């Protein structure tokens, strides 16, 4: 669907989700980081792939049950506890050590050119993401951080989408009304929540054959038709 939503004024900004919209994990897994198993095996070499899979599933449950994005160490402790591995300070430090983002993350092919053109057209941009506090640094390392004026990050704000506070934080930071902002997410339910709050919204469905009930895009470049 590509019809423009009714609003009291023209759209002036895009609020982007990050994972699944701007960037993706090389190898396909968001959490834990791709080097998790290798790091743990350096401390506990007898852990099997099956044990890792079960422990990571437990970590997924913990993540899903958290009211906001949990602390890195707390998340890793849950997985390590399931593995029966002592969450010693050295191991926790190794798991959160700085690794160049480009080693395990990449932007989608349509991202950079779309952001460049939106910027050229004077469109303001912000990020609304369920993520850890270092997301701006990751975007900067991937070469896209300069496009965003504001970040609304769950681990910083203490709430996750679809809590209205996380959407409003971004639009307020731009000093714009919700109706002046177009929210883009790969989760249609979160787009629907934004629309109920008065934002324009589009679900990004790059690889889905079934379009959702909310207005959608199949490529980020389709955003250019709105500005």
Quaternary structure type: single chain
Uncertain runs are 1-8
Largest sheet: number of strands, sense, barrel closure: 6 strands, parallel
Termini gap: 17 Å
Word description of this protein:
β6 (181-185), α9 and β7 form a beta-alpha-beta unit. The longest helix is centred in the first third of the chain and has 17 residues, at 49-65. The chain folds into two domains: 13-25 and 103-226, HAD superfamily/HAD-like (Rossmann fold); 36-98. It is of the alpha/beta class and 227 residues long. The strands form two sheets. Strands 5-4-1-6-7-8 form a six-stranded parallel beta sheet. A two-stranded antiparallel ribbon has the order 2-3. 36% of the residues lie in helices and 14% in strands. The protein contains nine helices and eight strands.
Please write out the topology.
Layout: E1 13-16, E2 23-25, H1 36-41, H2 49-65, H3 72-83, H4 89-95, E3 105-107, H5 111-120, E4 124-129, H6 135-141, E5 150-153, H7 154-157, H8 164-173, E6 181-185, H9 188-196, E7 200-204, E8 216-217
Parallel strand pairs: 1-4, 1-6, 4-5, 6-7, 7-8
Antiparallel strand pairs: 2-3
Helix pairs in contact: 2-3
Give a brief description:
By secondary structure, the protein is an alpha/beta fold.
Features:
2 domains; disordered N terminus; Rossmann fold; about 230 residues; elongated; alpha/beta; 9 helices; about 35% helix; two-stranded antiparallel ribbon; six-stranded parallel β-sheet
